[in-house]
Design a protein that fits this description.
The protein is of the alpha+beta class. Helices cover about 45% and strands about 10% of the residues. The protein has a single domain (about 10-160), classed as Jann2411-like fold, CATH 1.10.3300. A hairpin with an 8-residue loop joins β5 and β6. Bound molecules: zinc ion.
Amino acid sequence: MSEYDDAGADPADRVVAFLNTLDVEDGIDQLATTESFATWSGRRQSDADVAAARQLRDHLRARAAGEPPAGGPLRVGVDVVLDDGATLAGTDVVAEVAAAAARLAIEGRLERVKICPADDCRWAFYDRSKNRSRQWCSMEVCGNRAKVRTHRERSTEGVRG
Ligand SMILES: [Zn+2]
């Protein structure tokens, strides 16, 4: 089973897993090649698929980081089923992720998908806090590092003169 298939039933898990195909800390990009994308997704991929995947990821990562989304509208193949509500099903991996993101947006949950602001981290996560106030991927790791840094900067200000 690929990491992509592991991503659970909540569309948020699928979107977050896709955003984390870029691991800034370890310098690993699962969308670097057609082969690495195929391995990650567990499906055969073409060069065009990888290009579309990178475009979608750039777009979603920018949005999650609170930056203006990169690129124009996303053109993907989506099957729409109108039942009790509406079900969006992508016709390939990229379209599935785009459909999952669209579902989050419709449910008002896409802004809960965030990117850790630590420059050496940039990990994507889903903010499950009640008031959507979570900022760091992990308070223990990146939150504390930032706090220690701020503290150190403050306490050395007087010394430097
Ligand atoms: Zn982090």
